[in-house]
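RECORD TYPE: inverse folding
INPUT: structure tokens
STRUCTURE:
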């Protein structure tokens, strides 16, 4: 029920209004009455009505002063002024205080009913908008862990949008990165004979358990830490050691690496390799530490313990290590993102470029080609599983293992991957992930709620921590339209509805849907509907 309060210094008016208002028809109830602005102020504070009908000239406190005080206190209910005086200055002040209507006394019963129906419809519309906004915020809250995880991944591998180079643009939880040191521990789960028997879903459960163990161990040593899986069997642990004693910090990091490896064997029966990147003074050097951590693993650099595969990065490499084909972290991450976004062309190009670099290196054995094929397929499988898809319906593990055993040369690997990428991207069931769908749902709902505002994809990309370019691709894949085309269509459809109501002039409609340039609005309207805005009004 909508609550209505009446403030007027004439009792006859109060009684007449109470009789004239169609309470049941409006689904409204009487909230109380007052004979002056001071009492009205107290009444409204205590009852919080949805609608206030008030006079202006009253003893103790006039209506305009009462309204001004209410707005200062945050009262956002609807206010209707009924005054015996048609005064332009009073009307102007009323508008300044966001008054819904200003009507001269005496008012007819039909007019009163029309005004109240209009105001209550405004209340209903606002309530619906609040509910939709609440749903949007709830969706964003549900999606927040995902976007934060994606952001940390991008920061770890160096694919963040360039706008984040200004430390002030870091998300609030990571502002402290601007004032600390950083180091990366790379963790690689070993796909030994036992581990190869696990399905993709099994691996996902293991990763969850690994993350919990790593967090618990690390926070005992370093108070601030970020952990995120990269792809397949690799994960990144970002820590922030104090700058006072680098040798002490390095020792603490190495000891932590040992505890992580021992705990994974003890609790999960999983073998692992750990690489430690060097300590960096600036957060935008974190990707360098990430590459160093996994390069240390790949090149088996500076083994800390003979019993464990724990390696520390060092700049110089031996001639034997120069022959080792590296598996760049950034390439792996970009390939995973391309597959999740169903960017077949980009995925194919990434693979072609990487295999091209591989062919220029000496010492590429059939074993290494097969190992690389297994790892790349693991990346693709995991990233799609993470996006809500399982590849078992397209390719079984046994089938993939058999095909990989037949690969001996880099060009064979490229052809095989190219075929698999085309097959996956061409299958309709992989057209976009459920999590990407959540992002696009949020953005389309946001457009429908805020189409009259100045909206850009860059602004919305900040809300979901996804780069503008990547978000543009996701949006186009999901909707079939670019962001700007979708926004224009929503605005023009809304403008068409308003014009058909014939309550507003063309320039008023244009401004209400976000266009200040009227000729430009008319051009867009005709392009989208096939007619000029003025033609629609004349129909």
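DESIGNED SEQUENCE:
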């Amino acid at each position: 029920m909508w609550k209505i309060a009446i403030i007027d210094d004439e009792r006859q008016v109060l009684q007449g209004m109470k009789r004239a208002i169609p309470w049941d028809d409006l689904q409204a109830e009487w909230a109380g009455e007052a004979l002056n602005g001071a009492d009205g102020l107290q009444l409204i504070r205590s009852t919080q009505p949805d609608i206030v009908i008030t006079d202006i000239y009253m003893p103790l406190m006039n209506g305009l002063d009462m309204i001004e005080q209410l707005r200062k206190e945050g009262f956002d209910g609807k206010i209707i002024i009924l005054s015996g005086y048609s005064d332009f200055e009073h009307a102007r002040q009323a508008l300044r205080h966001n008054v819904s209507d200003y009507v001269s006394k005496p008012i007819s019963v039909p007019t009163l009913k029309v005004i109240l129906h209009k105001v209550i419809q405004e209340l209903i519309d606002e309530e619906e908008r609040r509910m939709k906004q609440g749903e949007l915020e709830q969706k964003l809250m549900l999606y927040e862990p995902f976007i934060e995880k994606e952001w940390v991944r991008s920061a770890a591998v160096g694919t963040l949008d360039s706008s984040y180079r200004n430390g002030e643009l870091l998300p609030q939880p990571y502002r402290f990165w601007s004032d600390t040191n950083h180091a990366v521990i790379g963790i690689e789960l070993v796909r030994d004979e036992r581990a190869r028997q696990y399905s993709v879903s099994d691996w996902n459960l293991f990763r969850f358990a690994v993350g919990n163990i790593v967090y618990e161990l690390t926070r005992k040593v370093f108070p601030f830490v970020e952990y995120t899986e990269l792809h397949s069997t690799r994960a990144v642990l970002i820590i922030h050691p104090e700058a006072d004693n680098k040798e002490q910090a390095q020792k603490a990091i190495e000891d932590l690496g040992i505890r992580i490896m021992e705990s994974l064997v003890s609790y999960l029966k999983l073998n692992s390799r750990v690489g430690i990147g060097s300590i960096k003074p600036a957060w935008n050097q974190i990707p360098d530490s990430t590459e160093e951590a996994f390069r240390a693993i790949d090149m088996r650099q500076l083994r800390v313990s003979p019993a464990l595969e724990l390696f520390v990065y060092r700049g110089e490499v031996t001639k034997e290590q120069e022959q080792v084909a590296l598996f760049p972290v950034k390439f792996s991450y970009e390939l995973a993102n391309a597959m999740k976004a169903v960017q077949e062309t980009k995925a194919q190009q990434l693979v072609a470029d990487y295999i091209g670099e591989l062919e220029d290196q000496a010492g590429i054995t059939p074993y290494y080609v097969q190992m690389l094929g297994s790892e790349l397929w693991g990346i693709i499988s995991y990233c799609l599983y993470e996006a809500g898809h399982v590849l078992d319906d397209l390719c079984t593990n046994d089938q993939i293992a058999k095909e990989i055993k037949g690969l001996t040369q880099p060009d064979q690997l490229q052809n095989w991957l190219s075929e698999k990428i085309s097959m996956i991207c061409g299958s309709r069931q992989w057209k976009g992930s459920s999590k990407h769908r959540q992002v696009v749902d949020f953005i389309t709902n946001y457009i429908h709620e805020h189409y009259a505002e100045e909206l850009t994809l860059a602004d919305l990309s900040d809300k979901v921590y996804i780069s503008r370019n990547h978000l543009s691709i996701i949006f186009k894949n999901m909707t079939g339209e670019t962001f700007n085309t979708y926004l224009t269509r929503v605005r023009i459809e809304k403008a068409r509805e308003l014009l058909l109501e014939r309550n507003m002039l063309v320039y008023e409609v244009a401004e209400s849907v976000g266009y200040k340039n009227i000729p430009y609005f008319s051009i867009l309207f005709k392009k989208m509907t096939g007619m000029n805005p003025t033609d629609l009004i004349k129909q």
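NOTES: The CA atoms of residues 53 and 528 lie 43 Å apart.
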